[in-house]
Amino acid sequence: MTYWLYLIFIIFNLLFYFICRVNKPPKELDFIPTVSFFKDILILLRNGGQLETQNLFRECDPNKIGLVKHYFFGWTIHITNIEYAKLFLSESAHNIPKTEMPPKTPLSIFYGKKGILVSNGDRWMQQRKIASLAFNRTLRPDMVVECTNEFITLLNKWTDTPIDILSLSKRLTIQILGKLAFAYDMKALDSLEEQPYFLDIYNKIFQHVNNPFFMIFPFLNLLALKRNIEFSSLIKEFNKFILKMIEQRRLELSKEKNENENTDLLSGLLEAANHEEYNYTNKELRDHLVNYLIAGYDTTSTSISIILYYLAKYPDIQKKARDEVIKVLGSASNFITSENLKDLKYLTAIIMESLRLYPPAALLVYRKPTKPFNLSENITIPKGISVTVNFWQIHRNPDIWNDADKFIPERFINPTKEIENNWIPFSIGPRNCLGQNFSMMEQKVVIALTLLNFEMSFPPNAKHLDEIPLTKNFLLQPKKIDLIFSKLK
């Protein structure tokens, strides 16, 4: 069996080598170092993590040019220099539109064709305008407090028991997002013994979307395989759930008298749907909601998981953060406001350092310049080649960050201009993340209330790792890590 696996691997590598030779990069890009295609494929096939991939990218640019090129069914330039990144990210969205996803793949089917994460041009600008107003309405710490108190009530039943922190964080963030964005109770914090219906479907879909073998060979998605039939069934169930949520909110809005009380994202989208300028169909509304779910759910749950991991790893940091929370908020969690959250300086530094080391997405969504793009007098990116900004590499540049791979929250207490300018986990420019303020507020409330109620630690004999093990997903996610939550004495 091993012999045949090696033979298949060799044949596939020879096939890819031939493809790479046929699809040579433009000559003007010869000076840009190239990521080893074979090493990258090997990491993907053995389901290696994002850390291995990023180390490969770092190693291939020893001269620190700030650019690397990578082949994966087409050439992509990764920008790893902050100044180049700023130039690129400040360019008009019309000049560097997002690269279209391959049709009829699990990724494109799940994301849809109309959502903000995949749209370009006027459609993207229209959605950005609507979403900006809607996100401003959802900045409500009181609702996050309400959901976090549900979370604490649930955890009180599972104290001193190892719990997978990503699974736990996902339950909390989907509950918050459900209520604040969609005015819908996801029932995610009722119990740890049963997986909520929505999360069960969502997680299964993501397993299909991120299947490395089907990413390498996308034609397999067109075959009548058991895996493809299962994915199709899951998508139907998922869409049915989303449309049910839309119809329920539409009915509620028709009965409500005071529209000013509607602070959720979905009500804003439904209001826009009735406007003749937008006239959204249910399919378009579905795509919008899915895009917001992906952007606001997986990213924040990962960030909360990583912060909890570091608090458990460094008890002195945990104690210092808890002392600050008690000083600022006392024990009365119901009095959390946007104003007193600003006084949590050290907790904010912990969150910022966590986002530096593990930004929500390692890479910017790929874009293709519609005309040659000048990064400097000597460097021009040709029209039509895919470009991305590698946030991971920028955040771990040893020329900018002392002890770049170490968790040091103090670097964000009275940070220098250089540090502020190099911290871009939510991107920058006209396409920066709309949910940045929402995410930061959510993380502060969740971590503050958790610190007020529990002490976090690792189970006995748990490995204390230098780096958090990550999956290969585009959106960073830690692999299974258990923590113990003990009631404060």
Automatic annotation (TrEMBL):
InterPro entries: Cyt_P450, Cyt_P450_CS, Cyt_P450_E_grp-I, Cyt_P450_sf, Cytochrome_P450_Monoox. Pfam families: p450 (PF00067). Its cofactor is heme. Keywords: Heme, Iron, Membrane, Metal-binding, Monooxygenase, Oxidoreductase, Transmembrane, Transmembrane helix. The chain crosses the membrane at residues 6-23. Gene3D superfamilies: Cytochrome P450. This is Cytochrome P450. One of its GO terms (molecular function) is heme binding. Heme binds at C433. Belongs to the cytochrome P450 family. The lineage of its organism: Eukaryota, Fungi, Fungi incertae sedis, Mucoromycota, Glomeromycotina.
